[in-house]
Structure formats: C-alpha cells, structure tokens
TrEMBL record, chain A:
It comes from the Eukaryota. Residues 660-725 are annotated as: Disordered. Residues 56-457 form the Cation/H+ exchanger transmembrane domain. The keyword Ion transport applies. One of its GO terms (biological process) is sodium ion import across plasma membrane. This is Sodium/hydrogen exchanger. Residues 662-674 have a biased composition (Basic residues). Keywords: Antiport, Cell membrane, Endosome, Ion transport, Membrane, Signal, Sodium, Sodium transport, Transmembrane, Transmembrane helix, Transport.
Automatic annotation (TrEMBL), chain B:
It comes from the Eukaryota. PANTHER family: EG:114D9.1 PROTEIN-RELATED. SUPFAM superfamilies: EF-hand (SSF47473). The lineage of its organism: Eukaryota, Metazoa, Chordata, Craniata, Vertebrata. Residues 111-146, 152-187 form the EF-hand domain. Keywords: Calcium, Cell membrane, Cytoplasm, Lipoprotein, Membrane, Metal-binding, Myristate, Nucleus, Phosphoprotein, Protein transport, Repeat, Transport. Belongs to the calcineurin regulatory subunit family. CHP subfamily. Its main location: membrane. It is found in: Cell membrane; Cytoplasm; Nucleus. GO terms for molecular function: calcium ion binding. The gene is CHP2. This is Calcineurin B homologous protein 2 isoform X2. One of its GO terms (cellular component) is nucleolus. PROSITE patterns: EF_HAND_1, EF_HAND_2.
Length: 743, 196
C-alpha cells in the first residue's frame, strides 16, 4: 500500500506546483542562471498525460499488491479493496494538498471509463443465453427499475412529510423522484465486479447482468424526464409531457439498440474486406464500437444499449472474418481496457468520497434511502418473479430471488448522475450526493463482501465452468431441431420457431453478405468447436513434450480423462490438419495398444472416404463397407436431404433472391445429376408402387399452395419442376420404405 | 366446465390417455384439434404424408427422422393415442411428479431419461441400443451444411464417439449418451412449455 502511495505523494506536490504560476526553469541548484540550461523541469508540459498514466499505473500496482495475498482476495472482492484504496489515497491527497484534486468527473466517466466495460460485456455476452432469458431480463430492467424508482422516490418523500428528514433538505416530490430514478438503477460495473467473483449459475448471472445493462435506457429516460420536469417547475408539467416521457422511453431504448445494430452491421461488413490489412482489424472493432457509443450519446439515446447491441450483433461475423491473431488481440485488449477502467472507477469513487465540500449529511435521508432500496428491490423481485414464473419453463426459485435482490448493486453510474445534477435547480443536491456515496459504498462493500458467503450458505447452483464438448455442441443442435420440429407438429410458434427462422435467414443472407467467402465456407459451429478442441489438444500435446512413444501418458484437455489409451492423438492431429494423405497408423505410432486394431479399422474407413472425390453425396454413395440395406437407407436419407434442399431453393427461387451462390452451386448441379441417376436406380429397384400418383400429386399441390407468391421467370419454373418431381418421388420413397424395410 | 368435458368426451379413451401421458384436459383438447386439423382427409389417423405437409418440417434437418419417430415399428398409421404418446415426451417436468410418484409405476413419459431416450432413438436408427459412429456421421451429415467436407465430418464423428465412449466399444450406448449430457439441462431443452 505504501509503495502505491509513494508515487501519489509526488502528485500533490507537483499538482500544487502546477497550480502556482509555473516558475521558469528552476533548473538544478547552483547552475549559472543565464545561458544554456542543461536540465529543465518541464512538468507542466507533460502534466496531463503523465497524470493519467500514473493513475493507471497506481491502479495496476494496487491490483498486483492485492493478488499477492491469496487469502485476502478469496474473501474480499477486488472492487471493495479498490474503493478502500481510493479512500486512503483520497485521504492522503486531501491531507497533503489541502483540497481534493481528483474526482470522478461525469464527463470522463461517461466518455472514457464506461464504454470499455460495456463493450467488453456486450461482446462477450453469451448471446444464446441472453436471448433465452430476454423476457425475464426485460421485465426486470424495465418494470423493475420503474418500480424501484417510483417507490423509493415516493417513500422518501413520505419520509420527509413525516418529518424524519431534516427540513434543510429542500426537496419536493419531483426532486425525490429524480433522486429515486438515479439511485435505483442496478449498475453493470458493480454487478460484473462482484458476480464474477462469486460464480453463480449462468441463468442467474445473465438475468442480473442483463438487467443492469438494459436498465440504462430506463434510467436515462427517467433521469432526463424528471430533470426537465424539475427545471420546468412542477406547476408547468402537463399531461402531454407525461406522454412524451413514456414515448421517449421507447425512442431511447429502441433507438439506442438500432444505432448499435447499424454499427454492428458496418463493423461486420468492413471486416469482411480486411484480408490484406490484418493489422487494423482490432482497431476497427474498437473504433466502430466506440463510435456507436458516441453516436448514441450524441443523439441522447441509450449509449449502453447501443454498445451492447453492437457487441452482440457483430460478434459472430467479426470472429469469422478476422484472423486468429486479431481475435486474440481484440479479446485481450478489451479485457485489459475493461479491467483498467473498472479499477480506475472504483478508485476514483473512493477518492471522491473524501471531498466533504461536495456533500452534506442527513441521517434520515441516508438511512431511509438505504432501507428503502433494499426493501423495495426485494419486494419488486419477488413480485416480478411470481409473475414471470407463470411463463417460464424453469422457474426462478427462492434462492435465485434472494441472490437477485441482494445482488442489485449500485455503483458509479448513480454517482456520476448525481454529480451531474444542477445545484441551482435542485437545492438538495449535496444531501443527495452524500446519500449516493453511502449507498454505493454500502452496496459495493457490504453487499459485495457478504454475497459470497451468502451464496455458499444458500447453496446456489454454481455455474459449471466447462467448455462445451463436441457431444454437447452437437446434441444441443439436435435438441433445438427436435424441439422446433415438434413445435411445428403441435402447431404453436414457440420460441424455437423464431430462432430457427432467424438462423435460416442468417445463413442465407446475412452470413453471405457479412462474412468472408473463405470463412463462410468453413464456418459452421460444430466444426468450430471441434477445431478449437483440436487446437487445444495440439498445444497441450506439444506442451507435454510431444513424445509419440508413450501415448499412455498423454492426457488431453478435451477428452474426459480415461486411463485407457486415448485415441492416439497424433493420428487425430494429422487427420485434423486436413492433409489429404492417407495415414498409416502402423507407420506413425510405435507403441501397440489395445485400440490399434480399432484405430486401423477406423483409419481405413477414413481412407476409403478420402480417396473418393470430395462431394459428400458421392462419398457416401461409394462407401463399400455399408451393408445393402443401410446403403439404400442412406441413399434415401441423403436423397431426402436433397429434396429438402431442393425445397429450400425452391422457396428461395420463388422469392427471387440470390441463387447466385457460386460455391455450393456446382455441388448442387452435380448432386442433381447424381440424384437423377440414383433416383432411377431406386425406382427401378422398387416394386410397383401401391399408392397411386394421386396421393403424391396431392402432396405437390399442397406444398405449392404453401407458397403464396407466383414464380416469375421460366428459369425458376424449371427449377420448380425439378423440385416438384423430387418431392413427389421422395415421398413415395418414404412411403415405400415403411413397407420394404421390415423393421 | 361442463361443456369442456363434453368436448373431451369426444376424444376416444381420453381417461387412459390422460393417465398414461399426464396431460391436462386442456392440452389434450388442443392436441386433439391439431390432430384433426392435420388429418386432411378425415381418415381418423395420420399418415406420413400428413406430417410431411407441414412445410416447416421439410426444411428441418431432422424433420424426417422426427416424423419417423411418430411411426414406431414401421407402421403407416398414426392414431391419436400414438400421437399424444410421442408428444408426451415433451411435457415440461413437474417437480411435483417426483414427489408423489409411486415407485412401482413406470416412469412418466416426460422424465429426463425418457426424453434422452427419445433423442437417442433419433440417432440410433437400427435400434441396436448404440449409436455407432456411422449413425453419428449420418446425423452430422444431416445437420451440417454443405460447407463442411466429408473428411471433416468423419473426423468429427470419430471424435464425438470417442468422447462419449467409455467402455471402448466404438459406439455410444444409451448410458454413455446420458452421461455425456449430464451437465445439459435436458428438462428445459426438450420441453414445450405450453404442453402441460
């Protein structure tokens, strides 16, 4: 601690020096005054950037010092320590310089310190989880914040009427409402800081965290509305103003989100073309995201929402387009910036608290506020959860609710907002500032400290931190498809319908537009997980010395630990590297293990697949090891798959949208021919159909009637014909199969 | 409620279906209406063609497999109890069920194990109780876009089977399958909320 304080001691002295008139060239003592000065002290020239750098340095040093002691960090969340450090530093500064030098300035905060944190959280937010729980998140963010604001404001006003708040606090109902609106917002910075240490299960985390991000819009609107009401004077407020207030809520939030999405689109589009200029990719990401923030801020829309949406929206395409190194660079830079900003925020919070000229104490107000925010938050959470649980599949139980209400931390945003108040319009500002400081400190320190033991005590379902295995990734997709299909059967558009539809829209149009060709080709989620797993394996393989000799000792991170010899990883590595060579197991691995034979078999399978040309359909056709039934079944299945694809392209041609996919096109063309041939074989091999053509014709017609548009060009009509034929044939296949294969 | 029950009475065997599947009357009624709506020619049963007419199923990669799962043992006609029996897998899991359940009674259709079994059957086409690599590959092929080449698919299939396979038989048995998914919230992922 002392070490950290030392550089700071230099600051007030220098600062004090700077506030005096800059003395010209004091130089080193004893130098001849005129003539060339060998050494000059030019503090005032480097003052500003030097200070900034020093602050950041102090913050980082503080972090290092904290983490030296394991015990401390396991008990106390970092944010607490930082605030306390800030308090100490502020005390030192105050003592030395006799006035508070460094404050949390709202301008700095909103323009420089908050964006990195929000960007980081938006970019790394698990989008699937977020959208799964979007209903709950929105409810808590909008309804919850409104509830908190109004009840707290009203309760405080009631407290004042009851005389518990000293009359020197001159505030009316509107003032209290304004105060309520700024104090009731759950703060993303604080929540992140504390919850990351605590590791609750991911649903809970995403709900609280999502709420803290999305309530920004509500807070901004409420704050501005109340502020303008106060400025207009409560007598002048009319009904239309209330309506305008409500409307502005929608404008601010949707506008902010729209801005974010526009910039996400731009970002994804520009990264598509940066193949030759890899080095600017991370820069692009940050610049455009920051531009989104600033644009929203400029238009007085919700900037946090903008950045969140930007991060959420662009991530998939940007990750596909930029190089691996750029991805790492982006990830690390974001994390660094965010952590740095967070540290500074907490420190400055501590320091700003020390300046007693800015605030005035009133016990009634302070205690009342503390009590009310806790009480009303808990009440609000309980009520909303009760309503939400009627609609949720997995209800939020009592423990979740406790954590949610307890985890509603207030932080720097509230503080910045209260500092922004105009003292001339709101005479009670100083009291509000004091209250805010106490509230923020209380929530971050006390609640931050106690939430971990609370969680442990309540035995909340902790999050299981594991990267998805290949199985889970695959099966997750399977379940999604199954669920979507069953919902179609049942006839109700559940959530999955929309997700499926979105994914198809995305696959067809967005991904083509926004992702680089080469990336688009291989970008498939399952492959991605597999690719990453293999890279991890390769790295750890190399780390373990890369010895092929004893594969028994090999443990790879992605495989569940098994004592039996893991499938010799070298083979896998080499297979994965996509080399077309047919590797011979015996040649590479020198140690015989029990699984060799199996390896060899699988290996020859692979080889068998590899020699054939690369089209999937063809390769599957030429598998010689599949038995006859299986072959037929496989034909049929792939055939049906093609039929489906035909149906898709059938639909898309109907809509006259780009059928100009150059890459898959030749495959489709060849597959068509394959289909034709296979089709003929299949039909020849079949016994005469029992079902008349009328049935299948009926299918055609109904399929067609599902598409309401008319096809325009004759070319598309030709496609339609082909599509129809295969639909017809395929269905007869299906119907036949039930009879032929006697399962 | 009187009119409700008279509607429900139109459903044949409604009581036994209700007991077997656990659906509420309202859900059963809704499903019955849907069944009738799907049954275009008023045959009284559904055929594959009826289900295939649901356009969205045709573009679902697993659509055909799911349709097949409605027709167990290669039958061609699907009656209402059979229809409901399959859909019962997707009922959300009530915690209340577990408490009062008589341990001697068969497991409810929407238990976690049964949900997993349903998914398992989609993979395991030859019904030998194991997902072979080949079956895994087939599923992969269905589910993965044209961008991925055959080699890559096969490697993936290998890897997937390896990961889950514990006894080293090169195929994934049902228990191994369940074990590999023990961390996944199946109850949530395989449940349709409004099917109470």
């Amino acid at each position: 601690m002392l070490r950290a304080a030392l550089p700071l001691l230099g600051l007030p002295l220098a600062g004090a020096g700077a506030t005096e008139e800059p003395t010209q060239e004091p130089g080193s003592p004893g130098e001849p005054p005129p003539g060339l000065a060998l050494f000059r002290w030019q503090w005032h020239e480097v003052e500003a950037p030097y200070l900034v750098a020093l602050w950041i340095l102090v913050a980082s040093l503080a972090k290092i010092v904290f983490h030296l002691s394991r015990k401390v960090t396991s008990l106390v969340p970092e944010s607490c320590l930082l605030i306390l450090l800030g308090l100490v530093l502020g005390g030192i500064v105050l003592a030395v310089a006799k006035k508070a030098e460094y404050q949390l300035e709202p301008g700095t905060f909103f323009l420089f310190l908050l964006p990195p944190i929000v960007l980081d959280s938006g970019y790394f937010m698990p989008s699937r989880l977020f959208f799964d729980n979007l209903g709950a998140i929105l409810t808590y963010a909008v309804v919850g914040t409104l509830w908190n604001a109004f009840t707290t404001g009203a309760a405080l006003w009631g407290l004042q009427q009851a005389g518990l708040v000293a009359p020197r606090v001159q505030a009316g109902l509107l003032d209290f409402l304004l105060f309520g609106s700024l104090i009731s917002a759950v703060d993303p910075v604080a929540v992140l800081a504390v919850f990351e240490e605590v590791h609750v299960n991911e649903t809970l985390f995403i709900i609280v965290f999502g709420e803290s991000l999305l309530n920004d819009a509500v807070t901004v609107v409420l704050y501005k509305v109340c502020n303008s009401f106060v400025e207009m004077g409560s007598a002048n407020v009319q009904a239309t103003d209330y309506l305008k207030g409500v409307a502005s809520l929608f404008v601010v939030s949707l506008g902010g989100a729209a801005v974010g999405l526009v910039f996400a689109f731009l970002l994804a589009l520009t990264t598509r073309f940066t193949k030759r200029v890899r080095i600017i990719e991370p820069l692009l990401v940050f610049l455009l995201a920051y531009a989104a923030y600033l644009t929203a801020e400029m238009a007085s829309l919700s900037a946090i929402l903008a950045v969140t949406m930007c991060g959420l929206g662009c991530k998939k395409y940007v990750e596909a387009n930029i190089s691996h190194k750029s991805r790492t660079a982006v990830k690390y830079t974001m994390k660094t910036l965010a952590s740095c900003a967070e540290t500074i925020i907490f420190m400055l919070l501590g320091i700003s608290a020390v300046d007693s000229s800015k605030w005035a104490w009133d016990s009634g107000l302070v205690l009342g506020t503390l009590f009310f925010i806790l009480f009303f938050r808990a009440l609000g959470v309980v009520l909303q959860t009760w309503v939400l649980n009627q609609f949720r599949l997995v209800p939020l139980d009592k423990i979740d609710q406790v954590v949610m209400s307890y985890g509603g931390l207030r932080g720097a945003v509230a503080f910045a907002l209260v500092i922004l108040l105009d003292r001339t319009k709101i005479p009670a500002k100083d009291y509000f500032v004091a209250t805010t400081i106490v509230v923020v400190f209380f929530t971050v320190i006390v609640q931050g400290l106690t939430i971990k033991p609370l969680v442990k005590w309540l035995k909340v379902k902790r999050s299981e931190h594991h990267k998805p295995t290949l199985n889970q990734e695959l099966h997750e997709h399977t379940f999604d498809h199954i669920l979507a299909a069953v919902e179609d059967v049942v006839g109700h558009h559940g959530y999955h319908y929309w997700r499926d539809r979105w994914e198809q829209f995305d696959k067809k149009y967005l991904s083509q537009l926004l992702m680089r060709r080469s990336a688009y080709r291989i970008r498939d989620q399952i492959w991605d997980v597999y690719y990453r797993l293999n890279i991890r394996d390769a790295i750890s393989f190399v780390d373990q010395g890369g010895h092929v000799l004893s594969s028994t000792g090999l443990t790879l991170p992605s495989m569940p630990s098994r004592n039996s010899v893991a499938e010799t990883s070298v083979t896998n590595l080499l297979r994965e590297s996509g080399s077309g060579a047919c590797l011979d197991l015996q040649v590479i691995d020198t140690v015989r293990s029990g699984r060799d034979r199996e390896d060899a078999v699988m290996h020859h399978l692979l080889c068998g697949g590899l020699y054939k040309p690369r089209y999937r359909y063809k390769a599957s056709c030429s598998r010689h090891f599949i038995s006859e039934d299986a072959q037929e079944r496989q034909d049929k299945e792939v055939f049906q798959q093609n039929m489906k694809r035909r149906l898709e392209s059938f639909k898309s041609t109907k809509h006259n949208i780009c059928f100009t996919k150059s890459k898959p096109r030749p495959r489709k063309a060849s597959r068509k021919k394959k289909d034709g041939m296979a089709n003929m074989e299949a039909t020849n091999g079949k016994p005469p159909r029992d079902l008349g053509f009328q049935d299948t014709a009926a299918v055609i017609l109904t399929v067609e009637s599902e598409e309401e548009e008319d096809s325009d060009s004759s070319e598309t009509e030709k496609e339609d014909d082909e599509g129809i034929i295969f639909v017809a044939r395929a269905t007869s296949e299906v119907l036949q199969e039930g009879k032929v294969s006697g399962e | 409620m009187g009119s409700r029950s008279s509607h429900a009475a139109r459903i044949p065997d409604v009581d036994s279906i209700q007991r077997e599947t656990g659906f509420s009357q309202a859900s059963l009624l809704r499903l019955y209406h849907r069944f009738r709506a799907l049954d275009r020619n008023d045959k009284g049963y559904l055929s594959r063609v009826d289900l295939q007419q649901i356009g969205a199923l045709a573009v679902n990669p697993l659509g055909d497999r799911i349709i097949d799962s409605f027709f167990p043992d290669g039958s061609l006609q699907l009656d209402f109890p059979g229809f409901v029996r399959v859909l019962a897998r997707f009922r959300p899991v009530d915690d209340g069920d577990h408490g009062n359940r008589d341990p001697k009674e068969p497991e409810p259709l929407n238990s976690r194990m049964n949900k997993l079994r349903f998914a398992f059957q989609l993979y395991d086409l030859d019904r030998d109780g194991k997902i072979s690599r080949h079956e895994m590959l087939q599923v992969l092929r269905l589910m993965v876009g044209v961008q991925v080449t055959e080699e890559q698919l096969e490697s993936i299939a290998d890897r997937t089977v390896q990961e889950a396979d514990e006894d080293g038989d090169g195929a994934v048995s049902f228990l191994e399958f369940a074990k590999s998914l023990e961390k996944m919230n199946i109850e949530q992922k395989m449940s349709i909320r409004f099917l109470k």
